[in-house]
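Quick one, C-alpha cells below. Sequence please?
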C-alpha cells in the first residue's frame, strides 16, 4: 500500500517537475506545437495537390462555398450586403461577357485598375474562371510607370474602374498603339477607344463557365501579378502562383479564425494583404468580410460595432491613426478579438491595447514575392514572428552580417557570408528550395536574379535576399529592425528610391539626386528625402520641383524633405552614399546645408525652419 502510494507521489512529483521545467525553460512549447501542427496539416493538403495534380484553388473553394452556403453574406460594402451566391453569379456574368467577346483566352494576362469595390472582386473572380491571370495595378501610379506594368505582365486587356478612367488620359494613345483593349466599368463611354463593360455585364448570363477553363494541374501556375517597388526604379510584377495564393488564404485559419468571424478589410485590394490574406482568408473560412473603399479612422469603431466585426486587417500606420483619434466613451464596446497585419510599433501596440481592450494582435512577416513567412502566434509585443527548432527544420533562413556603409553583406576570406550572434541585427536570407521556392518577377530574369544571393555559405547554394534587417532574441522571437538598399516604406507603401531619383533627374535644375528615407518621430516607416545637387547655371525652384513631383509621383513617393548639397559622397564602388545622410536626418539645427519641406498649401518646397521642424516633431504639422 505504502509502495503504491509512494510510487503515485513520485509520479505526480515528476510530472509536476517536468511541467515546471517546461514553463520556465520552454514557456511557449505547447503553443508552438499546436500552431505548427496546424501549419503542417495545411501543408500536407498542398503536398497532396502536388502528388495528385488535382489542385483545389482559392476560386474553386469560393465556388464550393457558394454551393454550400449560397445565402450567407460574403461581402458588406457601404451598407449593402452581397451573399456568396451574389458574387458568384456576378463573376459568372463577367466571365461570360469576355467569353462571348472572344478577346481573351485561357492563359492570358488581364490588368485590373480599380479601387476597393465589389466589382473588383467580381471582375477578378470572373477572369480567373476563364483561366486568366490577373495583374493588380496600384491605383496611385501614373503615366510611365503604368505603361511599364503592361510590358511586365504581357497584358493586352485592361479593366478600369469608373472613377479611375481619367487617370489614363495621358497614356490612352500609347495603350492603343500597343493594341491594349480598355474596358471601363460604366454603362457607356464617351471615349471611342474605351469600351463600356457595365451594360454588358447586366445583360450577360450568370450561367457558370466550364470548370475546365479555370482548372490547373500545377501549384506553380501563376494566378496573379502584384506589383511591388524595388531597386530597378519601376514597379516589378511579382508572380503569385496558386501555391502562394493558397498559403496566404490559410492565414486567418492558422490564427484561429472561423466561419462565424466578420473580417474588416480597409486596405487596398491591389495589395497582397487585402486580396490574398483578406479575401482569400474569408473564403477559406466561409466567413463574412466588410470591405472599405478607403480606411477612415473616424468611422472605424462605428463600423466595427455596426457590422459586429471580429477580425480586422491592419498596417502599423492604421493603428497609429486610431490611437491618435480623440478618446471616446465607447472605445472598448466592440466584438473585435483579433487584428492581423504587420508594421505595428511596440509603443503603438501597447497604447492600442490600453485604449481599445485586449485584442490579440497577430503580427506576420512576408513580402509579396518572398518565399518565407513568420507569424507571431504568441502575440508578443514588438515581434513580427516566431521561430523554433521545428520551424527551422522546415524553412531554412539565416541572419548575416551587413555593412551599412558599404550597403552590402559582409563576406569572409573564403567569400562566404557570416552569421550574426543571437540578438544581433543581420540581413534576413531565406534558402530557396522545394519547400520554399522563389517564383520571381514577370518579364525579366534579370530582376529575379537580383533578388537572389548565391554561394552564401557553400558553393552552389541559393538564398532569397529579403532586403530586411532583423534580429532573433533568446526566445526565438523575430524582430524587424530596418530595410536596406534602395527601398523604404512610407504610408503603407514601398518606395523605390531609384524611381524617385529618375523622376527628379528630369527637372532641369537638378544635376544629381540621392533619395532615401528618414525616420520621423511618431510616424511609421520612413519619410522620403532627397539630397540634391543644383546645376551651376541654375537656381533651386521649390515651385517647379513641387509641380514636377506632384505630376509624376504618387503622394507616398514624393520626397517630403530636400537637402541641397555641393557634392555627393560616394562609396568605394562609386555608389551614392546613403548611410550618413539617413543618419543625419532632417534637423535644421544640426545640418548646415539648406533644407526644404514639401508644402501643399504653398504648392512649393519651402525652407525648413526650426519652428517647422518642432511642429513636425510635435505632430502639429502633418506629413
Amino acid at each position: 500500500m505504502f509502495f503504491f502510494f509512494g510510487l503515485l507521489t513520485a509520479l505526480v512529483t515528476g510530472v509536476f517537475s517536468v511541467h515546471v521545467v517546461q514553463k520556465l525553460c520552454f514557456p511557449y512549447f505547447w503553443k508552438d506545437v499546436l500552431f505548427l501542427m496546424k501549419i503542417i496539416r495545411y501543408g500536407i493538403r498542398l503536398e497532396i495537390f502536388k502528388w495528385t495534380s488535382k489542385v483545389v484553388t482559392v476560386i474553386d473553394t469560393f465556388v464550393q462555398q457558394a454551393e454550400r452556403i449560397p445565402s450567407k453574406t460574403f461581402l458588406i460594402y457601404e451598407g449593402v450586403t452581397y451573399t456568396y451566391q451574389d458574387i458568384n453569379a456576378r463573376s459568372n456574368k463577367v466571365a461570360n461577357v469576355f467569353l462571348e467577346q472572344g478577346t481573351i483566352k485561357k492563359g492570358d494576362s488581364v490588368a485590373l485598375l480599380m479601387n476597393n469595390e465589389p466589382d473588383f472582386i467580381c471582375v477578378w473572380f470572373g477572369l480567373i474562371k476563364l483561366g486568366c491571370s490577373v495583374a493588380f495595378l496600384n491605383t496611385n501610379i501614373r503615366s510611365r510607370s503604368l505603361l511599364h506594368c503592361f510590358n511586365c505582365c504581357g497584358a493586352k486587356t485592361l479593366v478600369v474602374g469608373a472613377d479611375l478612367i481619367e487617370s489614363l488620359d495621358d497614356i490612352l494613345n500609347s495603350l492603343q498603339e500597343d493594341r491594349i483593349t480598355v474596358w471601363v466599368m460604366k454603362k457607356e463611354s464617351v471615349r471611342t477607344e474605351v469600351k463600356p463593360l457595365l451594360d454588358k455585364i447586366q445583360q450577360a448570363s450568370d450561367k457558370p463557365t466550364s470548370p475546365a477553363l479555370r482548372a490547373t494541374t500545377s501549384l506553380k501556375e501563376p494566378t496573379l501579378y502584384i506589383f511591388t517597388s524595388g531597386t530597378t526604379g519601376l514597379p516589378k510584377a511579382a508572380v503569385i502562383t496558386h501555391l502562394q495564393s493558397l498559403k496566404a488564404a490559410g492565414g486567418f485559419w492558422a490564427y484561429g479564425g472561423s466561419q462565424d468571424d466578420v473580417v474588416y478589410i480597409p486596405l487596398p485590394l491591389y495589395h497582397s494583404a487585402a486580396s490574398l490574406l483578406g479575401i482569400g482568408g474569408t473564403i477559406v473560412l466561409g466567413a463574412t468580410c466588410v470591405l472599405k473603399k478607403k480606411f477612415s479612422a473616424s468611422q472605424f469603431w462605428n463600423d466595427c460595432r455596426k457590422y459586429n466585426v471580429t477580425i480586422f486587417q491592419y498596417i502599423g500606420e492604421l493603428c497609429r491613426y486610431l490611437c491618435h483619434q480623440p478618446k471616446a466613451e465607447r472605445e472598448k464596446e466592440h466584438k473585435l478579438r483579433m487584428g492581423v497585419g504587420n508594421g505595428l510599433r511596440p509603443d503603438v501596440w501597447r497604447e492600442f491595447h490600453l485604449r481599445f481592450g485586449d485584442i490579440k494582435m497577430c503580427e506576420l512577416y512576408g513580402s509579396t514575392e518572398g518565399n518565407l513567412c513568420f507569424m507571431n502566434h504568441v502575440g508578443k509585443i514588438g515581434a513580427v514572428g516566431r521561430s523554433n527548432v521545428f520551424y527551422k527544420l522546415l524553412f531554412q533562413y539565416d541572419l548575416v552580417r551587413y555593412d551599412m556603409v558599404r550597403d552590402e553583406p559582409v563576406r569572409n576570406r573564403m567569400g562566404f557570408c557570416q552569421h550574426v550572434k543571437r540578438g544581433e541585427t543581420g540581413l534576413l536570407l531565406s534558402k530557396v528550395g522545394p519547400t520554399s521556392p522563389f517564383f520571381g518577377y514577370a518579364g525579366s530574369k534579370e530582376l529575379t536574379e537580383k533578388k537572389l544571393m548565391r554561394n552564401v555559405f557553400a558553393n552552389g547554394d541559393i538564398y532569397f535576399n529579403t532586403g530586411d534587417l532583423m534580429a532573433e532574441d533568446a526566445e526565438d522571437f523575430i524582430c524587424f529592425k530596418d530595410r536596406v538598399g534602395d527601398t523604404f516604406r512610407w504610408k503603407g507603401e514601398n518606395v523605390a528610391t531609384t524611381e524617385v531619383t529618375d523622376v527628379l533627374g528630369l527637372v532641369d535644375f537638378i544635376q544629381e539626386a540621392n533619395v532615401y528615407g528618414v525616420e520621423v518621430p511618431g510616424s511609421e516607416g520612413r519619410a522620403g528625402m532627397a539630397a540634391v545637387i543644383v546645376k551651376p547655371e541654375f537656381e533651386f525652384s521649390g515651385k517647379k520641383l513641387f509641380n514636377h513631383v506632384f505630376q509624376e509621383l504618387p503622394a507616398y513617393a514624393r520626397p517630403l524633405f530636400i537637402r541641397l548639397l555641393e557634392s555627393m559622397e560616394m562609396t568605394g564602388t562609386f555608389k551614392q552614399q546613403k548611410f550618413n545622410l539617413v543618419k543625419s536626418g532632417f534637423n535644421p539645427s544640426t545640418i548646415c546645408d539648406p533644407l526644404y519641406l514639401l508644402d501643399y498649401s504653398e504648392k512649393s518646397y519651402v525652407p525648413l525652419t526650426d519652428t517647422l521642424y518642432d511642429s513636425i516633431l510635435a505632430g502639429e504639422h502633418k506629413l
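The longest helix spans residues 2-25. The first strand starts at residue 73 and ends at 77.
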